[in-house]
Structures are given as structure tokens and as C-alpha cells.
Design a protein that fits this description.
The protein is α/β, with parallel strands linked by helices. The protein contains five helices and 15 strands.
Length: about 280
């Protein structure tokens, strides 16, 4: 069964259960550099993130603008201008965890599924997956609700768009900052022909990152067939009451996913969301 990873970016962080991040490395016009200073690596490490294979990428936004981001753990992108202001607290204890950075609530978040030109418009299955993902969140009656529309606009709290330069099966997103969610969520072209359920999974997962959650299996990346701890013991994660302490094989926030996913939250995902929002 093929495993997939995703990618996301940062503004701040709060973590829970993220089932799959699809980071298929692919050829693209995006430039990468392994020349990351030790100072930057030390700061990233202090955020309870793995500092192996950190790269810098220029990521295109729907208007064609390129923004430079550190890519960490294959599925987290961090704005260099915001890195110094990031901090976390608490001790890593279990898989379900959070930091002190959340989206302020109660509030309604506007979400746009991008329909503009240049290859950035979501495919029909991506649009359906996004609709199902937003419905998944809204049916939980959380302190945050989402209002979804489809437009050739970026005037929203979150903008979900297809990145035509990335052919991997997955996506990327960032963490909240200043009480606001991460704004831009990428979906990669490897999902162009994927099922509605797979696109639902990726959209749900990346929205989760954007409101502050990290991977459920940060301590092992077991869903990717790895045995790698993403974090640094002693910082960055506070256990969310009512969630398990071991591997949760069906969480929406696992590091990697398969194309057999149903795209739905499991009970632990729902517990964590209700605790935080």
C-alpha cells in the first residue's frame, strides 16, 4: 500500500492528531538549498521539530508571487520572518499535544477554494474534498466554524489552491499566528485524479495544521514506515486529555496516508478538536 506525505507552513503552532502528510519529492521549478545555518537549525530544533533535511523552497502563491519558506519534516513550511518569534512550552508527553498558539475563538473563518487561472484552480475532486472537509469541521459545533466559497480571490482567512509546480500526492500548510489561521493551503497535482475521499483527507489534514495541529505520530513517523522522532524531548507538546499515548493508526493527522483513506476524523481526533475549540 503506497504511503504519502504532505507539507505545511508556519506562523505558530499547536498540535494534535494529523493523519497524513504527503511529501512525495518530485522534480519541479522550485529551487531547494541545503545551506541552512546552524542558528536556524537550532531554532527549529527548539520548536520540537526534526532538523534533518531542512531545505529552503520558493513556494508560488495563486497570484504567481514566490515566497521563501523553510521546509521541515517534509510537510511543514516556516516563514523565515516569523521563525524568531515562534515559541512553545510544556513537555512532550504523548502523541496528542498542543502549544500556546491557537486560532482565537469563537469566530467564523472564511475559506476560499481557489478557481482562478494559471493552473492554480482546484480540480473538481479537490473542490469536493474541500467541501467535505469543511463539513467535517462544522458538524462538530466547535468554537470555530468555517464559511466556504469558491472564487478567483485570496480575500479570506484560508485560501486552498492547487500548486501546479508540485507533482507529489499531498499538500502543505502552515500553523496559526497572532490568533489567525495559516492562510495559504497548497494541494499538489498528484491528487488531480485522486478520489474525493483522498482529497477530503488531505484538505482536512492541512486545515488541521492551519488551525494549529501537528502530526499524531510525531514521535515515530510510524505511518511512513519510519522510526524517527520529529521532536526534542522536554519542549513543545502538552498532552490533550482523553487522547491516547501510543500510535493511533486511523488519525487524520498521521504523517503519511494511503489512497484507501476514508478522509474522516476518528474519535480521538474529535476529542482533541473539542478540547481545544
Amino acid at each position: 500500500m503506497k504511503k504519502i506525505k504532505l507539507i505545511m507552513s508556519w506562523g505558530a503552532l499547536v498540535a494534535l492528531l494529523f493523519a497524513s502528510c504527503a511529501k512525495d519529492e518530485v522534480d519541479s521549478p522550485v529551487e531547494e538549498s541545503q545551506n541552512i545555518s546552524q542558528e536556524v537549525l537550532d531554532k527549529i530544533g527548539s520548536l520540537s521539530l526534526n532538523t534533518n533535511d531542512v531545505v529552503m523552497k520558493d513556494i508560488p502563491l495563486p497570484d504567481g508571487t514566490l515566497v521563501s519558506r523553510y521546509v521541515v519534516e517534509g510537510d511543514i513550511t516556516i516563514d523565515p520572518d516569523k521563525l524568531d518569534g515562534m515559541s512553545i512550552y510544556g513537555g512532550i508527553t504523548t502523541e496528542q499535544y498542543r502549544t500556546n498558539n491557537l486560532v482565537s475563538s469563537p469566530r467564523t473563518l472564511t475559506v476560499i477554494g481557489y478557481t482562478g487561472g494559471g493552473g492554480y484552480a482546484l480540480t473538481n475532486s479537490m473542490r469536493t474534498g474541500l467541501q467535505w472537509a469543511v463539513a467535517n469541521y462544522n458538524r462538530l459545533n466547535l468554537g470555530i466554524t468555517m464559511s466556504l466559497s469558491f472564487a478567483a480571490s485570496t480575500n479570506a482567512d484560508m485560501v486552498v489552491y492547487r500548486n501546479p509546480t508540485e507533482s507529489g500526492a499531498g499538500g502543505s500548510a502552515g500553523f496559526p499566528s497572532g490568533g489567525n489561521p495559516n492562510k495559504f493551503i497548497q494541494i499538489f497535482t498528484g491528487l488531480d485524479n485522486a478520489s474525493n475521499n483522498v482529497n477530503e483527507h488531505v484538505a482536512t489534514h492541512e486545515i488541521g495544521h492551519s488551525i494549529g495541529f501537528r502530526h499524531t505520530d510525531w514521535f515515530s513517523r510510524q505511518s511512513c514506515g519510519q522510526n524517527v522522532n520529529e521532536g526534542t524531548a522536554g519542549v513543545g507538546a502538552v498532552h490533550i486529555p482523553g487522547t491516547p499515548t501510543g500510535y493511533d493508526s486511523t488519525s487524520i493527522m498521521l504523517s503519511c496516508f494511503s489512497f484507501s483513506t476514508n478522509g474522516e476524523f476518528n474519535n480521538n481526533d474529535i476529542t482533541a478538536l473539542n478540547f481545544l475549540y
